[in-house]
Structures are given as C-alpha cells and as structure tokens.
TrEMBL record:
<feature type="compositionally biased region" description="Polar residues">
    <location>
        <begin position="190"/>
        <end position="204"/>
    </location>
</feature>
<dbReference type="Pfam" id="PF06210">
    <property type="entry name" value="DUF1003"/>
</dbReference>
<keyword id="KW-0175">Coiled coil</keyword>
<feature type="transmembrane region" description="Helical">
    <location>
        <begin position="89"/>
        <end position="108"/>
    </location>
</feature>
<feature type="region of interest" description="Disordered">
    <location>
        <begin position="175"/>
        <end position="204"/>
    </location>
</feature>
<feature type="transmembrane region" description="Helical">
    <location>
        <begin position="49"/>
        <end position="69"/>
    </location>
</feature>
<dbReference type="InterPro" id="IPR010406">
    <property type="entry name" value="DUF1003"/>
</dbReference>
<keyword id="KW-0812">Transmembrane</keyword>
<protein>
    <recommendedName>
        <fullName>DUF1003 domain-containing protein</fullName>
    </recommendedName>
</protein>
<keyword id="KW-1133">Transmembrane helix</keyword>
<keyword id="KW-0472">Membrane</keyword>
<feature type="coiled-coil region">
    <location>
        <begin position="107"/>
        <end position="156"/>
    </location>
</feature>
Amino acid sequence: MDKTSKDSLPDMPVESERDQISQNIEAILKFYTREDQKISHSQRVLERISLFIGQPVFVGAILLFVALWTISNIVLHQLGLTAFDPPPFFWLQGIVGLGALLIMTVVLTKQNRLAKLEEQRAHLDLKVTLLTEQKAAKLIDLLEELRRDLPNVKNRHDPEAVALQQSMSPDLVLAALDEGGNSEERLKQSTETQEDMSSSQQTP
C-alpha cells in the first residue's frame, strides 16, 4: 500500500460523518419544504397579515386611528357641526370590536397550523427517543454478553445492568402518564418481572 492510500484512510470516517450530517440536514430541509408547499394561498395571506399585526407599528396605527376618530368628532361638535360618531362613539366601539375579532381569527389560524407542525415534530421526537432507547438497551445487552464471555473478567450479577437491558414498553409509559400512581406500580412490577426472567435465563 503506497503512502497516498495510507494518508487517505484516516479521512474516510470524517467524510462518512460529513455525508451523514448532510443527509440529515437535507431530510430536515425537505420536511420543511413539503410543509411549506402545503400552505394554501389564503393561509399565506393571513400569515402575512399576522406578521404585520405582531409588529409595534400596528399598535401605533390603532392608537393613531382611535385618537383621530375621537378628536375629529369632538372638534366637529365644538364647531357646531354634526359629528359622524358623537360620544360615546358607538361606531368606533363597533369598528374596534370587529377588528379585534378579525385579528383573533387571523392569529388563531396561524397558531393552528403551527400547532399541527409542532405535533408532527413531537411525534418524530418520540419515535427517535424510543429508537435510541432500544439501541442503548441492545448495546448494554451486548456488553453484558461480552463481559460474561471474557475469561479474565469475573462474572457477577448486576441488577442495574439487567434492568437497563430491557427496552421500556411505550404502552406502559403512556399508561403511567395517563393513570398516575396505579400504573406506576404496574410498570414497576412489569420491570421486576422482566429482571427475574433475565436472571433466571442467565443462571446456569
């Protein structure tokens, strides 16, 4: 093997790691691209409006409108002219109430879409977490098996390692979250049962 091939070998894991990172980033970008393409034209218009509503200039515009409306009616009344909305400004109250209703609808529309997207991400996080937990349990199982097979390592019973070898059941976790203490007891009993079964299998 020449020097050039030897020098290129250490770079292979680095390049592989970079490829994996690039694939993960590309998958995330594709996910957001698909979700963005699902947005309808009316939804985009409402979200642009919500962006403007969330800016401080919108608050200033509302205050300016209310001040001009109120001052105009007071000045017209002082000049002896007919005010288009005399105090207590019923038309102004109606316009403000309608505006508040429309603003609330626009904001809720955007929040509903974001909540749906967040729910999808939460499901993905849960799947990744369960997969990671299963992989960790498998690694512990392999390490325990290697420890038992090594002749120079004394074999001993490790209850913590036995417990960690067992992958947690998602159904039991959800039941514990939903039902509280009773489910926690059943979860503990199920874990102890799995430990006893593993111990009996390891005992020659």
